[in-house]
Design goal:
Strand content: under 5%
Helix content: over 70%
Shape: rod-shaped
Distance between the termini: 36 Å
Number of strands: 0
Length: 87
């Protein structure tokens, strides 16, 4: 995703990748820890363990969406101001 600031875009893309890695690592580690108890219990625990990472992914994606909406609104405002100046 591209944002207006390249530094912010790079940072948020890095954090998004880290959140996905956190979700995957959490699911994998918890799955193997609870596999000795039972397969179904391990799958359920792994799904629960992915929730913090997936929450971070949703939060960062929401921020991307809001930033994109804000930039689109700024472009539309500039176009509308230009149209009102011409008429």
């Amino acid at each position: 995703m591209k944002l207006s600031s390249p530094l912010l875009s790079c940072l948020l893309n890095f954090l998004l990748g880290a959140a996905w890695a956190f979700a995957l690592a959490g699911a994998t580690i918890v799955f193997y820890l609870y596999l000795e108890i039972g397969f179904i219990y391990a799958i359920f625990s792994a799904l629960i363990a992915t929730l913090p990472g997936l929450f971070l992914v949703l939060f960062i994606e929401y921020f991307f969406m809001k930033q994109e909406t804000l930039s689109e609104l700024k472009k539309q405002t500039e176009l509308l101001e230009e149209l009102t100046r011409k008429s």
